[in-house]
Every structure is written in C-alpha cells, then in structure tokens.
C-alpha cells in the first residue's frame, strides 16, 4: 500500500477523491489549504502498489496537479475490524513508476559513489595482499557496483538511452577507481609477487556465468518487491551482485602492477561476464513486472532500445562464453581441477595396491612457458598384504595418473606427487 498527497486547485479535490475511489483507494481525506499563491485542496490517498501508475495516469488530466509519493509502504487498517489481519497481509510488488524513479535517484551523487569505490579498492587490496578472506566480504559490502548494474537493466527494460549511458559510465568509472586504488597500493608498497588468495580468486569456473545470472534475478526481485514483503535485505542482494566484481577489480589493479597479465585477463573476463549476465536476467524480470518503454510521466523511452540492448547483451555473453570454452583450460581452471580430482580419486580407488587417503588437485600460476601446470598431491596407504615397495607403488601410480589425465583430454601438464603412507605397526604383547 502506498500513500500519496495530491495538491490541486480549490474545488478539484472532490474529483481527485472520485478517481481514488474508482481505484479502490482507502483511508481517503480531503483538506482545504493555502498554497504559495492561491487556495488549494490537499487529498490524502492510500492505494495498492499495482494501482499507483494508473492513478498517476488519471490525475495527469487535472490542471496544476502536484503529487507527492511516499516511497515506503504503509499499513492501512480500516473497517470492518475483523478484516484487519487480511489488510495487514495485503503486500504487493512496487509499481513500475516507483522502480524507475528509484533508479533515477541513485544516479545523482558522484562524490559519495566514488568514495565508496575508492574505499572498496583499499579494503579489497588489504584482503588480497594479506590473504584475509573476510576482508573480501567487507569489500563486497561497500563496493558500489550493484546500483549501476541494476540501473543498466532498468534502462534496458525501459528503453532509456540516457539512463543506459549514464549507468554504464558509472559502472566502469567505479571499476576504474577500484582498479586504480589497488594498483597504486601495490606499486607504492612494492608488491613483487601474486599472493595465494589472488591466484585462488582469479581462477574461473566453467559455471561462472550462473552467478551473475542469479545476481541479476535477485537484484531485480529485490527492487520489485515491497520492502515488507522480502526477507532478504538490499545489502544482501547488493553483496551478491558485487560478489564477483570487487575481488576481480582488485586483482586487475594488483596483477597489472606486478606484470601478471594472465591474472589480469581472467579478472577482466569476470568483470564483463558479470555485467552482461546481470543485465540479461534483470532486464527480462523488469519487463515481466511491467517496466516498458512508455509509462506515466515517462516519455523518453524508445521501444527499439530494449531488443537492441538485450540482443547486444546476449551477443556479449555468447562471445565471452565461446572464448571461455574454446580456450581451455585458461578460463575453466576451477572446474577442471574438480574434474581432474574426481578422475584421480576414481583411478586410485580402482587400484588394488593402495587405499586413497586424500587427493588435492589445483592449477598453479607457475611462470613456466608453454604449459598449463596441474599440480596433484595424492596420499595413499598400501592395502593389507601388498609387498611392493613404496617407491614401486609411487612410480606406477604417478605414471598411471599422468597417463589417465592426458587420455581424458585435459589440456594440461600434470605434475603428480604420490606419497605412500604407512599405518603404525601393532605392538605385540
């Protein structure tokens, strides 16, 4: 339920009340007041969220009308009293005009926006430099990437070229500030090598596209839902949107400062993938909930912008995914490591000489020209009754693992370290 205060010339208040009644308005009131120049009527209206845009459309025909929309939901309890519980449960999605106006409000201030972008750069640098994971979470919370990303989707759904341009500009300016801050700190403090957390966070999974798709849907739903109808806070969805933005932005700056261009490429891939994925699902959901090129008090939308912008988004997404899957394993390291681990465990479990204790598989960022190094550290224990020496077991199992991984089509150089562990001998009494 939304509350509106409508100001019209004296004598027009009755007509406003009739319009509100036709849209099932409740708790209506008309007051006579003195405006800055002439007497006026003030009308208090409470209507459901879905009726707000239609109410705006009908009030547009009145002369000299001024409308104040209170953006927060209100709870109207009116007779009969027995329906109060049902009235309290009457929570609906925001109207398209509210969603659009909230997007416009968020593109106003540059000073605070850039301040948050710089702060996130400092925090993400400290987290990556000191290998402190919780600082990356803090950087996600303060990174201002969610607003521009969602406004790109709103502009796409509305067909608003001006808002689309301003939102894309803010998105890349925020990224540039975060990247510049992280890079400057690495240069000032003379960072020479990539930290383990930088290497870990730069590795891309083959299912990386699912995160921005989910983030776009969650962000759109958060903006569409009334604040009292969602159990998920805006900060949580904003963090989801920034989850794969703040760390890659910091990695771009830090890796660029130390000349690790392989890390830079992987991080830039994630940044572009995030924006395209968010825009695709969020724009489609906004259209589903009623945002269109033409609306009340909104005339600058162009119907052709939506299919063009959406098609451009799909083309970017398809290009990025094609690049990801054609250039294996560069942009699939995380998921390929999991697959390789599964293959190694399967192979060892089928071996009659040993029992698997543990297998750790990961790609390294060793600067060895011409190879993609996959490091496998495997711990095994000999089975009871096996008389082969530890060296014989280690040698045969190492060769078997390397041969198997190459036969499975992994485009890697598998370096395998097998350790044969011995169980303690039972003491005889």
Automatic annotation (TrEMBL):
Record's keyword terms, sorted: Membrane, Transmembrane, Transmembrane helix
Protein's name according to its UniProt entry: TIGR00341 family protein
Transmembrane feature ranges: 110-128, 134-156, 168-189, 204-224, 236-261, 267-292, 304-326
InterPro entries, A to Z: DUF389 (IPR005240)
Classification via Pfam families: DUF389
